Amino acid sequence: MNIVRVALDLPLPRLFDYLAPDSDESDIGRRVTVPFGTALRTGVIVAIATASEHPDGKLKSVTAILRDMPALPAEWLALCEFCARYYQTPLGEVTSFALPPMLRRGKLPRIRKPAADAAVAPAPTVDALPPLLPAQQAAVEAIAGVDGFHTLLLHGVTGSGKTEVYLRAIDAVLARGGQALMLVPEIALTPQLEGRVAARFPGAHIVCANSGMADAARARGFIEALTGRAQIVLGTRLAVFMPMPRLQLIVVDEEHDASFKQQEGLRYSARDVAIWRAHQLNIPIVLGSATPSLETFHHAGSGRYRMLELPERAVAEAMPVVRIVDTRREKLQEGLSAALLAGLQLRLERGEQSLVFLNRRGYAPVLACPPCGWISRCQRCAANLVLHLADGRLRCHHCGFETRVPRACPDCGNVDLLPFGRGTQRLETMLVERFPEARVLRIDRDSASTPKKWQALLATIHAGEADILVGTQMLAKGHDFPLLTLVGAVGADAALFAADFRAPERLFAQLMQVGGRSGRAALPGEVLIQTEYPDHPLYQALVEHDYVRFARTQLDERRIAGFPPFSFQAMLRAEARTMEQALDFLAAARSAAVALAAGVTLYDPVPMRLQRLMTLERGQLLVESPSRPALQAFLAAWMEALYALKMPAGLRWHLDVDPLEF
Ligand code: ADP
Ligand code: ZN
Ligand code: ZN
C-alpha cells in the first residue's frame, strides 16, 4: 500500500502520512489535498513510502493529488528542506511560504497558451550597446569565466555600471538557453528595473515576483518559471523560491540591504539562501553593492568570494563632494544649518533639485505637555505616538494604533502642547515657509502610501516639477534623478551610538546611498552631512568615499568583540502577557540548553529594546558560537527541548537564526 508523506503548513516539526493507493514516485513534489481534523488542507508530497510509523489502519486517505501542474522539482524540495533545517522551521511552513498563496490553497490560475516553443527562443539583444568600461569588461569576463559554483562580489559605487554588468551576464545565460534570477531589495524598485530589463531583452519572457502582485499573476509567474518558459525572474526576497529548472545565474543587487532578511514567520535571508542554492546547483552567483555587508566583505577578503571592483562612475565625471557641517556651535533654523540653507538657495537659483534626507517620518516623534509632563504614548507598546500634523493624528509606528491629536492635555487640560523633535513633515513645513518660491515635495511612507502614489511622486521629480525633496530612506535606493545636485543629511547622529552593533554599518550604507542620488548625470553633486561629531571616523570615511577603510575598521571592532562575521548567532524571542512570564520561559529555555551547548555561549534573557508591542511583553535570549556547524547542531537539539517546554497561556516564541535586529 502506498503512503505519501506530506508537508503541511502547521507549527509542528514533522511530516504527515496518508494512504494514496494510486500514487507513485512521480507524485513527489505535487500538491495534495488531505483531511486534517475536521477540515481539508493542502500540502506538498515530499516522499513516497510503503510503511508508516503509524499503524496502517489508522491512516486516512488523501482527498486528491493535484496533478494539474508539473511537480515541484527535487531541487526545489531540497531548497525548502535546507531552509527548514537551517532556520529551524517546520518543512510544511517553508513549502507553504515558498508557494504563491493561490497554489498554496490548492488552486490554479488560468494559464494562457504559450506561443509555440517560446521557451527556447533565444532573447534577441538590442544592438548598439555602449562599449563597456575596462572594469565592467573585466567583471563581465570574470563572471563568464566561472565554471560551476562561485560567489562573486561586484563592488562599485552607485552609478558605476553594476546593472549593466548584470545585464551582460544575463544576456550570456539567455544565449545559452538558461534562466536567470535577479533579486532586488524593494518592490518599489522592480517597475524601474523591469522596464530597463524589458527594454534590453525585448523578446525575452520576463516574470516578476513580489508580495505586492495580484494572486493570479504571481501564481502564473511561478508556473512559468517552473515550466521553464520564464527566462528572467525579477523579484524581491521571496523570488529566491521560484522553481527554475534551467537556472544558470543568480544576481542579488544591493546585497547588503536588510530587506533581504524576513522579520517574521520564516526568518530567512534571501541572500544567504540564494548562495546556498547556487552552491547546490553549481552555478555562479553575483552579489552587487556599493557598501557590501560586512559578512560579504569579510568573505571577499578571505578569498572565499571573488571581489570584482568598479572603481568609477560610468557617466558622471566624479563622485559627489561630501562635506561635513559641524553644527556644534551653530544655532540651527528648524534643524537646518546656514550651509545647507545656502546650498538649497543656490540650487533654486540654478534650477536644480535638492534633497533633504531625514529618516524619520511624521511631524515630530512625540507630543508633550511641559507643565505636567504628559507625553503621547502608545497604549499598546512601549513607544511614543508620533505626531502627524498633516492629517491631525497621533500614530504608533510599531503597531499602527492611531488617534486624533488632542486639543488639550488629557491629564491637566493645558492647551499648549508642544511637539518635540523633528520629522519629515515638520521639515517640509519649514522649507515651504523659508523658500516660498520653491516647490517642496515630501517623499516618505505616508505620502507614498500606495505604489500608484509613489510612481506619481517619482514622475513629478523626473519631470523637474519639484525643487526641494524632503525624504526618508525610501528615496535612497536605486533611483536616478538627473537634476538632483545637492543632498543634505540631517539627524544622522542618532544612529552613531545606537545599541545595535550593526547601526554604523547601516548608517554608512544609507548615507552612501542617499549621497549617491546626487550628481548622477552631467551635473556635479554635493553632499552635506550635518553632525555634532565631525571627526567621527564614519563621517571621515564618507568624505573620502572610502568604504574599504570603514569596513576594515568595523571588522576589527567586530573581531575584538567576537561579533558576526566572527561568530554566528541565533535569537530566541518570547512574548507573553507579562514580562515575568516571557523571561521565565526564556530562563527555562536557557536551563534546557545548558547540557546541549557544547561550543555555544548562552547569554541571559533580557527584555527586548521595544519591550512591549501590541500589549505583549517581549524578551530575548541570544546564543552565539564561533562555529556555524556547532551552532546548528545545538539549535537542532535545543528546538526539541523547546517544543517540550511548558508554556503559560498566551505565550509565543520563535527562533531567529542569523538575526539582524537586536
Ligand atoms: P549601478 O547599477 O552601479 O548604479 P548602472 O548600471 O545603473 O549603475 O549605470 C549607471 C548609468 O551609467 C546608467 O545610466 C547606465 O546606462 C550608464 N552606463 C553604464 N555603463 C555604461 C557604459 N559602459 N557606457 C556608458 N554608459 C554606461
Ligand atoms: Zn503601538
Ligand atoms: Zn498636561
Explain what the structure shows:
The chain contains 17 helices and 29 strands. The protein starts with a strand and ends in a 5-residue tail after the last strand. It has 4 domains: 3-104, GIY-YIG endonuclease (3-Layer(aba) Sandwich); 134-310, P-loop containing nucleotide triphosphate hydrolases (Rossmann fold); 321-363 and 422-549, Rossmann fold (3-Layer(aba) Sandwich), CATH 3.40.50; 568-657, 2-Layer Sandwich (Alpha-Beta Plaits), CATH 3.30.70. The protein has 662 residues and is α/β, with parallel strands linked by helices. The model is unreliable at 117-121 (pLDDT under 50). Helix 1 crosses helix 2 and helix 4 runs parallel beside helix 5 (162-175). One zinc ion (ZN) binds at residues 378, 380-381, 383, 396, 398-399, 401.
Structural descriptors:
662 residues; alpha/beta; GIY-YIG endonuclease; seven-stranded parallel beta sheet; 17 helices; 23% strand; binds adenosine-5'-diphosphate; binds zinc ion
The radius of gyration over CA amounts to 27 Å
CA-CA gap between termini: 51 Å
Give the overall average pLDDT. 93
Uncertain stretches of 5 or more adjacent residues: 117-121
The CATH topology of the largest domain is what? Rossmann fold
Give the number of domains. 4
Number of strands: 29
Strand content: 15-25%
Catalogue the ligands: adenosine-5'-diphosphate, zinc ion
Relevant CATH superfamily of the largest domain: P-loop containing nucleotide triphosphate hydrolases
CATH architecture of the largest domain: 3-Layer(aba) Sandwich
Major sheet: 7 strands, parallel
Strand order of the largest sheet: 8-9-7-10-11-6-12
